[in-house]
Amino acid sequence: MHTTLEGTAKTVLIGSEVPFVVIGERINPSGKRNLAESLRRGDMSLVRQEALAQANAGAHIIDVNVTAEGVDEEAILPLAVQTVAEAVDIPICIDTADFRALAESLDRCPGTPLVNSVTGEADSLQTVLPLVKERGCAVIGLCVDEDGVPADAGKRLEISQRMIRAAEEIGISKASVIIDPLATTIGADGGAGITTLLAIRAIAEELGVNTTLGGSNISFGLPERSLINRSFLPMLIEAGLTSAIVDPLDVEIRRTIAAADLLLGRDEYAEKFLQRFRNGW
Amino acid sequence: MHTTLEGTAKTVLIGSEVPFVVIGERINPSGKRNLAESLRRGDMSLVRQEALAQANAGAHIIDVNVTAEGVDEEAILPLAVQTVAEAVDIPICIDTADFRALAESLDRCPGTPLVNSVTGEADSLQTVLPLVKERGCAVIGLCVDEDGVPADAGKRLEISQRMIRAAEEIGISKASVIIDPLATTIGADGGAGITTLLAIRAIAEELGVNTTLGGSNISFGLPERSLINRSFLPMLIEAGLTSAIVDPLDVEIRRTIAAADLLLGRDEYAEKFLQRFRNGW
How many CA atoms lie within 13 A of A221 on its CB side? Predict the structure, then answer.
């Protein structure tokens, strides 16, 4: 099953038979003081810079998140989305929990963007999905509901089913729903990795939909986060993950994804791998 | 299911609930002119040095292979095995296709070594397995038979079943048989990685036995072999691989295995991971 997203000039397919899709995570002020400060001032220069840098590094989609203390999301998110759409020609992932900021941003976003996100909570399903349907875009469904993030994979599968059913009921095809099974931190729970892997495998096999994951939460609080993240990625991709929200400027992450695509038969004659190798990744 | 091996002082368990087991590959003259030359002279200094270096780097088992043009295996392999057994206290993996060299080497090897290997060929099963039974050791079963290495995972599973049945018929428990599903090169066959992963998963789930793999054949002929190998390892371990024959002096391989154990819940409170991090891996 393919999810199709469109930027101003580029179309991106997500699916198990095409190369793994990288959603660039860098336009997010969490933990980034400079970006937060510039967003508070309404200054879009860093947003533009990060969009270009990620696209140049091979990101397929750019995530745009402006959530930070003192940032007026309803004014700033649409501006940031418009800035990214003007800077790069690839699809955009609009990342907010603020419904009005989302609606405004969709108005300014060309192509077929990805909405990040709806959850399994009734409120979220009832507000976000009709907007996704109306605008004909795609949506990330987070495996969380009124009871929080389930500790086991089976419950995450259930929430996924519920989100897909709700989408289908209002006419959104399941190809337009990308499930994020979530990963809690391995430092706090030794079973966190296995739970996420089981959830991805179950969602891919039983529901057949695409999946995505924030690539770094698993390592929170530990040293060598990039090592942990890039060791987790091949497992996730092998289990069925078809996209991830990661830092495309981390060369080791890029190299690992190129190797994973090669190893899983998505890079005939190692063509892409060799090309990236020759170009210094 | 646990496979238990013993060195002069250390016991090693292989299994899906214990940390991944590293079999050090460096005592092998293939592609190593100095080692080949010293083996031809019967000089054991490099063998001793490589055994110590690998044990210090955290290898759990030392593979000993002396096969090279001009090396008299029946004389040299037993000497090399004895040298390693005197140098380190961990189990030994005796790696030869020469039956008499194997029998002689087992005579000189203390503890419970691993025999590398038997194949699915009738000749091999009929000669190697009785020796394994008589000496009470364990054996690696290679998924190859009279027709070569099967191109599909199902046939590799069949050969595994045949080898295990032959072992059980003469009283070797299946806990003492470790299957090597083999990996062909991804540069020549884009499906090579998937076939090996499918075979490992099938062998682990349907037969419940331990598995091992030479960690570097997959990348033969390509640049960035260490990158490809260490991106494959997390997939293999997640699919059920419980040991591998790799270079323990490759720090990136060591780091990847530590991260994989952490991610798969075999390192409670990240204790080993943090210890290795503090000790500079």
Answer: 9
Mutation to test the A interface, candidates B263, B268, B273, B274, most A Cβ within 10 Å:
B263
User: Phi and psi at residue A98, in whole multiples of 5°?
Assistant: -100, 110
Interface contact flag, A231 B260, Cβ < 8 Å: yes
| Cα–Cα distance measured from residue A187 to residue B264, given in angstroms and rounded to the nearest whole number | 12
Answer with the residue of higher pLDDT: A135 or B216. Answer: A135
CA angle A173, A178, A184 (to 5 degrees): 150
- Residue-wise pLDDT tens digits, B260-278: 999 999 999 999 999 999 9
Confidence at A211, pLDDT banded by 50, 70, 90: very high
B263–A239 CB contact, under 8 Å: no
**A216 band by pLDDT with thresholds 50, 70 and 90:** confident
Tell me if A27 sits within 8 A of A51, measured CB to CB.
Answer: yes
How high is the pLDDT of residue B215?
A: 73
SS3 content of chain A, % helix, strand, coil (to 5): 50, 15, 35
Average pLDDT over residues A98-120: 97
Angstrom distances, CA of residue A239 to CA of A24, A176, A196, A229, A242: 21, 20, 10, 15, 9
**Count of positions (residues) in chain B:** 281
Our CA-based measurement puts residue B268 at a distance from the nearest CA of chain A, in whole angstroms, of 6
Question: Tokens at residue A166, please?
Answer: 């709700």
Check: CB of residue B38 under 8 Å from CB of residue B45: yes
Among the partner residues B186, B232, B265, nearest to A194 by beta-carbon distance: B265
Query: Number of C-alpha atoms within 13 angstroms, CB side, residue A154?
Result: 0
Confidence of residue B216 (pLDDT cuts 50, 70, 90): confident
Most B-contacting residue of A184, A201, A231 (CB-CB within 10 A), to test interface: A231
Smallest Cα–Cα separation from B110: which of B82, B130, B136, B79? B82
The torsion angles phi and psi of B18, rounded to 5 degrees, stand at: -115, 165
What are the structure tokens assigned to B223, written together? Answer: 């640049």
| C-alpha Rg value of chain B to the nearest Å | 18
* pTM for the predicted model, two decimal places: 0.95
Its ipTM equals 0.94
Of B238, B267, B277, the CB nearest to A223: B277
Contact B211/B200 with Cβ under 8 angstroms? yes
Spatial distance between the Cα atoms of A164 and B249, rounded to a whole number of angstroms? 48
At B137, the amino acid letter reads C
Residue A79: per-residue pLDDT: 98
Torsion from C-alpha of B48, B50, B56, B58, nearest 10 degrees: -130
- Residue A215: pLDDT above 90? no
Helix, coil or strand: residue A183? coil
Chain-chain contact of B270 with A186 (C-beta, under 8 angstroms): yes
CA angle in degrees (0–180, nearest 5) for A260-A263-A264: 85
CA R_g for chain A: 18
DSSP symbol at A148 = B
Average pLDDT for A187-203 = 97
E strands within B51-190? 61-64, 92-95, 114-119, 138-142, 177-180
